[in-house]
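Field: sequence (string)
Field: structure_tokens (string)

Example rows 1 and 2, in order.
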Amino acid sequence: MDNIKQAIRSVIKDTTELDSICSVLINAAEKAEQEGLPYQTLITTVLHKYITNQLVEKEEILKSIRLLKEERVI
């Protein structure tokens, strides 16, 4: 029971962090709906790509495409 009380106290103290987490989850759920995926699948996929260094920034991809076009590779 003490663990539960301690967890509740920490959540109450960190309401800003909790709000931030809720906001991220809501955004993930909205994006998943747009993509036609369950939000759990979207979150799992993003985490997997991040952990395995497969998640890349959009700007980095666009930069690579521009460079390849300049070299007439694509």
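Row 2 begins here:
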Amino acid sequence: MTWRTSRELRAPMVAAMTGNDLGHPSIRQSGEAQEAMCAALLAVLTSAGFTAREHDNDMSPFGVRVLAGPADG
């Protein structure tokens, strides 16, 4: 499961990255938003009975891997 920031947040970050402006605040803001959403997704899924963890794909560092659904009962 993945989540992306809005285009309004993503566009300045992409422009900064492609322009090699690695200190631009939009890069930090985008990373913090993605990290927060990953934590929120994990919390919501776990509370609903799913088994989930952060995805181990280093090309998608804020992805969530759902391992199992809630147990029947």
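free_text_note (row 2): The chain has a mean pLDDT of 90.
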